[in-house]
Design a protein that fits this description.
The protein is mainly beta. It has one domain. Helices cover 0% and strands 37% of the residues. The chain is built from no helices and five strands. A three-stranded antiparallel sheet has the order 1-2-3, with no helix packed on it. Strands 4-5 form a two-stranded antiparallel sheet. One of its GO terms (cellular component) is cytoplasm.
Length: 59
Amino acid sequence: MVNNYGPTETTVVASSGLMLPQGVLHIGKPVAHARLYVLDAHSQPVPLGVPGELYIGGT
């Protein structure tokens, strides 16, 4: 089974990943030409494990 993730405002898939039994639920890796960023309230990247806002970019 594959988990595809994308913003609700559009019909695009931004990331995709395999779902494995007993595995951690995740949004996968960015698809081709997409980049995912987790940013703080000042649009700065946050360290791994720190909550933030998900931003999606690419061409």
